[in-house]
From TrEMBL:
This is Pyridoxal phosphate homeostasis protein. Pyridoxal 5'-phosphate (PLP)-binding protein, which is involved in PLP homeostasis. The lineage of its organism: Bacteria, Pseudomonadati, Pseudomonadota, Gammaproteobacteria, Thiotrichales. InterPro entries: Ala_racemase_N, PLP-binding_barrel, PyrdxlP_homeostasis. Residues 29-227 form the Alanine racemase N-terminal domain. PROSITE patterns: UPF0001 (PS01211). It holds the Pfam family Ala_racemase_N. Signal peptide: none annotated. Keywords: Pyridoxal phosphate.
């Protein structure tokens, strides 16, 4: 089992590296986030020993148990956030990718322990404008970003998106290009903010995301294998 995880992990790293070269980008400019939701701590420890230090989790209770065992890793919360779950997220994670409402940002700021560094957050953007998806519309990002950036104990770092699925590379690239333009618009309007992160791209579309400026790709299946839905 460990050999197959390591092999898959190396294959994903090679894909990221090659996509960066194809896009004339420095491979160091893209961070690989291993999405470890529903996966056992043993798999995380194997990857950690092979150099992976950043892990993404969707479920609060499951992730807290993992963080307790491996507190020195960098933990990213990437799932939907319920208001009654903001406190443990604020207390235990270094990054939150899925801030989709002003209220959630306010609660995370209020509940972030002041003895910890500011919590790095990303605004989730419903870039494909799907009725079933959470997230700010692009116009709402421009409206709410100043209010969220002003909150204490938070560090607004950029944007995150899960676009509508597409099978063709050119179609995959379109929403990612819109995300890149939206981030650039924010950077131009607020040059003093530390906006340096575009979290986008998963197992099926990481190349398209990297071509369009992703700085962080979130990979689960192609590293850990198929998801076990019985554990969700």
């Amino acid at each position: 089992m460990s050999d197959s995880i390591i092999t898959r992990y190396q294959n994903v790293k090679n894909r990221v590296h090659q996509a960066c070269l194809d896009a004339n980008r420095d491979p160091e400019s893209v961070q690989l986030l291993a999405v470890s939701k529903t996966k056992p701590i043993e798999d995380i420890q194997i990857l950690s020993k092979n150099g992976q230090k950043s892990f993404g989790e969707n479920y609060v209770q499951e992730s807290l148990a993992k963080i307790e065992i491996c507190p020195d890793l960098e933990w990213h919360f990437i799932g939907p956030i319920q208001s009654n779950k903001t406190k443990p997220i604020a207390e235990n994670f270094q990054w939150v990718h899925s801030v989709d409402r002003l209220k959630i940002a306010q609660r995370l700021s209020l509940q972030r322990p002041t003895d910890l560094p500011p919590l790095n957050i990303l605004l989730e953007v419903n870039i494909s404008e799907q009725a079933s998806k959470a997230g700010f519309s692009p116009q709402e990002v421009l409206e709410f970003a100043p209010q969220i950036a002003a909150l204490p104990n938070l560090n607004l770092r950029g944007l995150m998106a899960i676009p509508q699925q597409a099978d063709v590379l050119e179609e995959q690239r379109k929403p990612f290009a819109k995300m890149h333009q939206l981030l650039k618009q924010l950077q131009q309007q607020y040059p003093d903010w530390h906006l340096d992160t575009l979290s986008m791209g998963m197992s099926g579309d990481l190349e398209a995301a990297i071509y369009e400026g992703a700085t962080m790709v979130r990979i689960g299946t192609d590293i850990f294998g198929a998801r076990d839905y019985s554990k969700t």
